[in-house]
Amino acid sequence: MCDFEQKLNQLPALETRVNILEQKISTTSTANAELNHDNGLSDEELIKFVVQDELNKKTEEAKDVASRHKM
What we know:
Blueprint: H1 2-35, H2 43-70
């Protein structure tokens, strides 16, 4: 019974180690996926594109509102 209790007490430490390993694997696989993503746009380029698109939409909306107020 003592052996069993000792092993049960070690379980949280083992779970922590497994979680750390899972995070490392996830980080490594994400980094590898980014390296293999050479053909497309980078995340930074995609973010810039989306932000620019939203700014263009806001500008068009502001122009529409301004032209409606002039009528």
